[in-house]
Every structure is written in C-alpha cells, then in structure tokens.
Amino acid sequence: MTGPRFLASSALRLAAAFALIFALGGALMFGAFQWAVTGYANKSLEDDLRVETRVLLADGVASDPDGLNRRVTARSRIASPFAYALFDGTGRRLGGQLPIDVSRDPGLSQVAVPAPSDDEAVHDEPILVRTLATSLPQGTLVVGKSTHAVHELQEWMAEIAFWGAAGMAVLAAVGGLTVGLILARRLDKVNVATTRIMQGHLGDRLPPIGLGSEFATLRDNLNRMLERLEASMEAMRHVSSDIAHDLRTPLNRMRQRLEHAREHTGTTKGLQGAIDQALTDLDGALDIFAALLRIAQIEAGTGRETFAPVSASGLVRRVFEAYQPVADQAGHTMALLADSDRMILGDEDLLIQMLSNLVENAIVHADGPIHIIIEVYDDGASTVLCVRDTGSGIPDEALPKVTRRFFRLDHSRHSPGSGLGLALVAAIAALHDADLVLGSNRPGLTARIAFGQDGVDRTSPE
What we know:
It is a single chain. The chain has 462 residues and is an alpha+beta fold. It folds into three domains: 1-114 and 124-201, Beta-Lactamase, CATH 3.30.450; 213-299, Helix Hairpins; 306-457, 2-Layer Sandwich (Heat Shock Protein 90). Helices cover 53% and strands 18% of the residues. The chain has a five-stranded antiparallel beta sheet with strand order 2-1-5-4-3. A five-stranded mixed beta sheet has the order 7-9-10-12-11, covered by helices on one side. Strands 6-8-13 form a three-stranded antiparallel beta sheet. The model has no long low-confidence stretch (mean pLDDT 79).
C-alpha cells in the first residue's frame, strides 16, 4: 500500500479512532480511580484527626488546661505525624507548634506552614496542614496533620493516569492499525476479484474475507448475486441466439412467399392469399415477442404487488373445467383430484396460465389418446399443484433444459409452439417462490409445483 493510499485508508482512520476512544476511556477510568483514592485518603486523614483529638481529651482532661497542655507537649516531643495548638479563652496560645493564625473555629480547616529545612535543600513552598478545631470549656484545641502524603498520592495517581491512558492509546492504535491492515489486504483481494469480474470473467467469485460471520454472510450473498448475474447473462446470450435462430425461419418463409407472389401471382386473389400467409407468419413472430416480454416482466418481479390469497382447489377446478371439453374433442381423458383447503398467496391469473400451459403442452404434443390428471394436495407445510399425463414424456437428459427459452425436443418440432411454454411456467413458479420439479410419470410427464410455507395461507377458503 502506497503512502498516499495509506494516509487515506480506513486502516489509519480505524487506528486513530481506536486510539482516541481508548485514550478517553483510559483517562476517564484513571480519573475516576484517582478521585476515589484521593477521597479515601482525605477521609482517612480526617478520621486520624478525630481519633487523635479523642485521645488527647480522654480522662476528662478537657477541663484542665494545664494537664491538657502537658499532654500536648509530651506528644509533640515524640515522632508524631500530628501538630498541635492549645489556646485559652482569650485566644492566647498555651502550647503546640501550629502557627498562631490557625483557624480556631470548630470543625475542619487548613493552614499553610513553612516547610522544614535540612542540610541538603531548603524548601520555599509551604506545607498544607489539615486541622480540626475542638471547643473546650476554657479554650480551643487544634490538631493538625500534613497533607503532603495526600498530595504526593495525587501526583502519583495523575502520572499513572497519564501514562496509562497513553499506553492504552498506543496499544489501541497498534491493534486498530493491525486489524485495519488485515481488512485492507483482504479487501484488496476482493477488489482484484471484482475487477476481473467487471472485465468479463463472470465465473470468478469473491474470496473469503474473514473477520466474522457478518463478512462471511456478505461474501456468500454477493457470490449468490454473481451466480444469478452469470446465469442471467448466459440466459440472455442463449435468448439472443435463439431469437435470431427461431425468428429467422418464419421471416425467411414470409419473404419467400412475398417474393413468389410478386413474381408469379398476377391475380388479386393470389396476392390476397400471400398477404394472409404473411400476416399469419407476422402474428407468430409477434406472439413470440409477446411471450418473451411476458417472461421478462415476470422474472423482474412484476405482479408481486397484486398477490392475494387464492383457493388452491379453485385454481385446479377452473383449469379442469376450461380444458376438459378441449381434451374430449382431441380424444383424451381428464381427471381432477382436489384434496386441499388451503389458500395460495399469488396472482390468480398467472397461476391459471401456469397450469394452462402444462395442460396445453400435454394435449398438443400427445401422439395418441392420453390421460391427464390435474390435482392439488398438501405435503406437510407445502401445498402442491400437479399436472400428470400418460403421453410420450421428456427424456431424463432433457429435463434440465426444457424450461429454457426456445428449447424444443426433436419429436415436437413439427407441432405448433415456440418453445416458450415451459419457460413461462418456470418464470411464474419462481415469481411465487415455488419449486417446479419435472419428472417421468412412467409413461408421460409429471409437473409438480410446490408452494412453501411462506406462500401458503392455511385458512379455509370458506
């Protein structure tokens, strides 16, 4: 990664964000710790002042100024951390080493005293002493203790807070930079893969990104999207080729008829017949384009906004009643098996067209009298629409191909049709998130459309 790219990369921004967040968090944490420890030290100092005052005033010595003075003097001579001052009722200091201007008001206060000097150095900065003044019958007792230890603790805690926050910020920056660089390297691989895909290598897929299940899910979804895109592009390529191939025949035939009529037909009736044949060929071509447009609209999701509950039994019954006379006229027999009271969420007209295409295929491509069964039944959480016939069927090796546009079996090329019927059936099933399964009926063909749990309403149509 080059310098300018690195400075503008998400890795650097991620590292900076981590450093800032952890620095603020560390400062807040150590600040709260310092506040708690300092508060505890101050409270301990105040408790020590109260205990020392109680010790001095024990045994009723509070009413004996001379005795209390002797006790204060004695405790001042030992290595005691406390300092004292004893005042009589007129404010004259009787004993102790605290300065004369110390507060004599009852309660806690604070006074500055000169720092002691030693052989090595002289301290100009005064020392703060916390004091506790207690009123006596004949004066005031003041007990003090230096806050130097508390101030040292505060300075020590402040230093710990600074270096702790700085250390956390550095570690967070290193961690964020490491994670960012790992993510950047993996995204570089993804960018390389997407660049190859944009260059036309539609068979390539995105490599694993890592760093959690969210990225794995994103990668899987993108790869599935690429698979659908590749399938769509391949289908488009086949459609373009098939359109050019299948439309060339009727257009050439129409041209030949018109040329023949122009050169050999000299009567109005003959020209009228040639025009009628040309119009028939044009209608066939327009029907093909209309079917292709309808399939494209369905595959784009057009129609989902009109979905409503539709009686599954009512669907098969309507198709059966519409095609039974047609089948009888062609010498075929039909049967209806309606064994479901569920409702299917979908477009009623499209669902009827789907079943109609399956029945028409069975009738049109039959070599002789056949038996056709239209049925609906419940299969666990699914509701299944099924059309079965006893015709010639479809070879097993051709079953995956028959739902492609313009695909026709060799024995059906002499019968009417354009090879778009099953493609339309597959598109309608996909629009309704239903599974279309074509198989052998031994003999004949079975077309099974299963609507999953999301596409079924178990409410009775009544």
